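User: Quick sanity check before I run a bigger batch. Here is a single chain. Can you write out its predicted 3D structure?
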Amino acid sequence: MALTRRRFIPLLIIFAASVLQAGYVLPETVPNVNPEPVKNAGVGGDFAAQAISDFLDEKLEYEISFLWFKKAATGSASFSREGDGYKAVLQAETRGFVGFVTGHRKHIYVSHMKFDPEKKKLRSYLFERFVTIRKREEKTLNWVDYKQRSFAWKDYKKGDLVDEGVEPIPKGVEYEDILSAYYNFRLGVFGPAERGRKFQVNTIPEKGESVIGVNITSEEEAEQSRKLFGSGYDEDLMHIKVRVPRVIFRSKKGEVDVWVGGRMRPVKGIVRDYIGFGDIRCALSGWDD
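Assistant: Done. Predicted structure follows.
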């Protein structure tokens, strides 16, 4: 399908969003978010309820750097209740001189979800994207309806509708947005978070690409990522290689490296070969529970 929606990198993690170097150094230390080794996730009624309870009111904050610009942008990820469901928000914005040059660009991603007790997972039914550059806003809305087995989208520019459509969801397929995928990963929906595991997640099709590939590297591979991570590396961190549809991060291959610590929180992330910016790095700078 031909889509006109454009997505700027969340500048973390997935966690730029999330995540979203040559020639400069990131902060010397990484906050101690890994007081205990990463534990394998598993799914079950009690586990899911406890995990979602842990997500509530959680807010992770990140500093983002690219090219020779250190701490050029800030980002955050949060999870909260919304009616009888939940809402996750991922946002990032440039600041200072870089903010001036880029028109104080701000990106907000919102996933509206409900917990399915039978599948023991969070199901996204509405995903929103807002991009503001100076006073110009772009908006994309995606709806997923599993009763009708369809997904729909609308794209707006400067308040005008520029693209819309509806397509069926293939039998047996469930679509994740970037935020529902992240929190369901922490819930253990895609299986245990074991080193050496590989799996795929279906996402809403983007220019012929509709799969997110996840590779939780082995201990040996994770150790080899120490140099890429930089200072503050901890052997208990879990290194995950993610491949997403290239259009999402506007990168050449859609490759993202993420390191997660305790409670599966992303500590650092790198979006590889972002077109025009090279590698974009984000580092956890603080959090609220």
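The radius of gyration is 18 Å.

User: Great, the batch can go ahead then.
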